[in-house]
Known about the structure:
By secondary structure, the chain is mainly α. It has helices at 3-7, 22-35, 40-50, 62-66, 71-85. The chain has one domain. It contains five helices and no strands. The model has no long low-confidence stretch (mean pLDDT 89).
Amino acid sequence: MSENELDKTMAYRFRSEEGGSAGETLVAVYAALKEKGYNPISQLVGYLLSGDPGYITNYRNARNLIRRFERDELIEELVTSYLEKGE
């Protein structure tokens, strides 16, 4: 490898074989929160702002599902989905 190749930052994204996309995960977590009687929007906002997984229920494995994604990936999915609806 040349010195220039060593200076480059490589991006690596890991996806579990059992999981879906960020959008599918958000929908599943939303449903789990709603089923447990939480306000899913408030809980998701709390998680996205703080990174504290305590905002997400363990019910239906929702906490583990959402933690497979970086928070910025989830926010990107939300913004993209919202803005593409308006087109």
